[in-house]
Amino acid sequence: MTSVWFGPWTLTQSQEMALSGTTLAGTKVIFVYHNPALARLNRAQISGLEYEVVDLNIEEDPGPSSFDLITLRRVTARE
């Protein structure tokens, strides 16, 4: 298991409205320092809760201050 620093990424009201009714509704987005190993990530655990990775937005031109965005959906007991 890899541990990384992350922070919440806040969507604008327009972005949230655009996602309403799509498969990305109800997801959360976090940002992490660019890490090529995250391209293989399919699950994440935050504060004891398990999440499925539904989208990765990996920085194409990484630099010392590059960030990747990871979209997560909470895994429920029945999944």
Describe the fold and architecture.
It contains 1 helix and 5 strands; from the N terminus they run βαββββ. It is mainly beta. It has one helix at 13-19; strands at 6-9, 28-33, 43-46, 49-57, 67-74. A hairpin with a 2-residue loop joins strand 3 and strand 4 (49-57). It has one domain. It starts with 5 loop residues before the first strand and ends in a 5-residue tail after the last strand. 9% of the residues lie in helices and 39% in strands. A 5-stranded antiparallel sheet has the order 1-2-5-4-3, with no helix packed on it.
Structural class: mainly beta
Distance between the termini: 21 Å
Which strand-content bin applies to the residues?
Answer: 35-45%
Give helix % range: under 10%
* Overall tally of structural domains: 1
Discrete helix count? 1
Organism: Furfurilactobacillus siliginis
Protein name: Phage head-tail adapter protein
